[in-house]
Amino acid sequence: MSLLKYLFFNFFEMLIRMFPLPCRMGLVEIGHPGRNSPVFLTGNYHLTVQRVKRALRGWDAHLVVANSRGINVWCAAAGGHFSNHDVISALKTSGVEDVVGHRNVILPQLAASMVETKAISQRAGWKVIWGPVYAKDIPDFLKEDHRKNMRMREAQFPLIQRIEMAGAWAFPMSVMIALLFLLFWPDAVLESILFVWGLAVLIFAAFPLYHKKLRTGGRADSAVFDFGRGGLQLILWLGVLSGLFLYSTTVGDFSWRFLLFWGIFSLAVILVLSFDLGGSTPVLLSSFLEERRLQVALDTGKCRGAGFCEDICPRSCFIVDRIGRKASLSHKDRCIRCGACIVQCPFDALCFESGNGMKILPEHIRTHKLGLLGKRDVSL
User: Fold this and answer.
1) CATH of domain 3-153
2) Domains of the chain by residue range
3) pLDDT per residue as tens digits for the range 244-288
4) CA distances (Å), 73 to each of 67, 201, 295, 346, in order?
């Protein structure tokens, strides 16, 4: 794929990334792979597959595209749409076993919240190697002999991702609002679209300025604003109202009708954009996650220092002492309750626990997926 075509697909699919976008499943050859070439496996979300292919340019590798229902691997795994069965099925039916002489498969790290290393080994005979969080780090991951540094295994939210998320929210919203305005106020269609895009870009681009002041649940949090209580939304809305007032008085066209209409409109847009702002980022808890008021608990008596928790935690919450063979939750405050560490621990040394001793045990996390509103109430 040419660079221009690749950039076009990235831009277009960024706008519709809220919706499933499946591509063909099966085995894809990158370069001229042989029997000893590495095997990568990912979900059939088109944008992800294109980015993995791009990252593997210049390498010889086999890429197995499994069924994730056209959803990115993190969301698909959390929702039970990318599970052990999907990975095993792809490995057994793609034909990859016939063209390689080894049984090592590199999986995306963000699939670790549902795909179990132990299950893939026992039921399929393949050893799972957890690759980096981002496809762009695959070349360095290969050069370093499948070893990941902190940068490769930690989820970030840089400016480019924040702009992508702003576009992912703004595009469908602006389309729906434009259609509505065409029916009732066609003269203001352009203004409504600019309003939506402006607020979306403002909220996500400015994220580093306020995210440490936000509280999304959990006993250890001590931040100022609470998503659930509307602190951030109120400040944003007051800022927009002030901007509307200054604009209307500056151009000499002030009216209470103008301020009231665009004030109500902006409040509605802000509420939609921040409906689950934490869940729209890889670094904060979803407002609807049922485990948001629980903590990951480590039973040091069961821990044997296997190191899976350190390898797959997207927020680098763990440090493993290889000599003493013990893990420690050194950055518990960073935890986003994805559950990956609980799923992967071979000794069941981790679980979710509340202040009063209530626990969500590993077997429950492994066998129940997250629903749309963050509840583990559907058995796989």
Assistant:
1) 3.40.50.11600
2) 3-153, 163-280, 290-379
3) 999 888 988 788 989 999 999 999 999 999 888 888 999 988 877
4) 10, 25, 24, 22
